[in-house]
Amino acid sequence: MTTEIVRVPLGDRAYDIQIGENILGKAGEFLSPLLKRKRVVVVTDKNVFAAQGASLKAGLAGIETDFIVLKPGEATKSFDEFQKLTGRLLDLGVERDDIVIAFGGGVIGDLTGFACAVLRRGCRFAQIPTTLLAQVDSAVGGKTAINAPQGKNLIGAFHQPSIVIADTASLNTLSPRELRAGYAEVVKYGLIDDEPFFAWLEKQGTALLAGDASARIWAVKKSCEAKAAIVGADEQERGKRALLNLGHTFGHAFEAAFGYSEKLLHGEGVALGMVLAFEYSARLGMCSPDDAERVKSHLGACDLPVDVHDLPEVPPASTLVEFMKQDKKVEHGALTLILADAIGGSRIVKDANIDDVSAFLKEKTGR
Ligand SMILES: O=C(O)C(=O)C[C@@H](O)[C@H](O)[C@H](O)COP(=O)(O)O
Asked: In the sheet where 124-129 sits, what is the strand order?
């Protein structure tokens, strides 16, 4: 199978996303032209290191490599872990021109990217995403962050990687739950502005989740193309990039309410959040109830949470609204929501009525 390349068009900070099956062994080949000295530090987590550390080591043969291995899970995106990581990178003498490799899922990518954004006021980094969620979304576009008790990703920076290497064979090491959670972000691209892609996913999603290699490469490429186009047009979310946040204002509130625990993975929160965004859009008369039902039905068929009662606990609406008020898209104290006129017809709605959102969530949660 050939390697696909998607370019993120950001002028002198443009970079390639290399996508292919079993390309980890070529990591050194991809990285070498970017290295100012033959030395990298790899930040990863225990699970990724155990499953794929040896393959990456082999791919980096001839390049001096140090590994920093962290605890897996969303709790690692904390201030405490950020402090420890920056300390270790400094102890290892990482310089501004060096490349630090984020080797893992969204947690490792976001934390490492943020550490690199501020280390010596900015050093370079590469993303080698190993989860579906990171390959189609978090490793691309330069959003880096850690979580705060007040809300998700509230401390961070825009800092673009120098390259993204997405080996779709890494997806074979994921648990079915983690794979499904990442799939929610794939579906998001169809819902934003590409109904034919959503229709394709309705037909091919099951094969993709079951391991169809070419369906995976095609979906990763298609998602990266969609994201690269939006990021290229609006790097720092002054306008249309906010569309990529479909499902996230609701989803992040649930994640925060669960204390960023394993009870709800990020992609699961996004799946539920997208269903709620479509249901709320239908309530406002923006999209048809049939569209909202179609979204719910596809995500539900993929065994993702699509109803608050699918969750291990149901948080009260008031807690969710408090977290939503901390969303980064809030302007002059008012909520901005990504809602939809149709599948493939999402749009940014400013000044959403917070009392109405609260009433909607009360109906959903019964609390
Ligand atoms: O890249 C973006 O822009 C996104 O919003 C993509 C999201 O899927 C991703 O989870 C992002 O990290 C969330 O950003 P945030 O600004 O809501 O924290």
From this structure: 4-8, 15-20, 164-167, 124-129, 99-104, 39-45, 64-70
**Test site for ligand 1: of 140, 231, 248, 335, most ligand atoms within 8 A of the Cβ:** 248
Give the pocket of ligand 1 (CB within 6 Å): 137-138, 141, 143, 145, 152-153, 185, 237, 241, 244-245, 248, 328
| For the CA of 249, the nearest atom of ligand 1 | 17
Place of tokens 């923006």: 286
Active site residues: 121, 143, 185, 227, 237, 241, 245, 248, 252, 266
- Indicate which CATH number applies to the domain containing 339: 1.20.1090.10
| pLDDT at site 239 | 97
**159 and 15 share one domain:** yes
Reading phi first (left if > 0) and then psi (alpha if -120 to 50, else beta), residue 187 is in alpha
Provide the residue range defining the domain that includes 162: 4-173
Same domain? 217 vs 253: yes
- Predicted complex ipTM: 0.99
Same domain, 187 and 123: no
Weakly modelled stretches of the chain, pLDDT under 50:
none
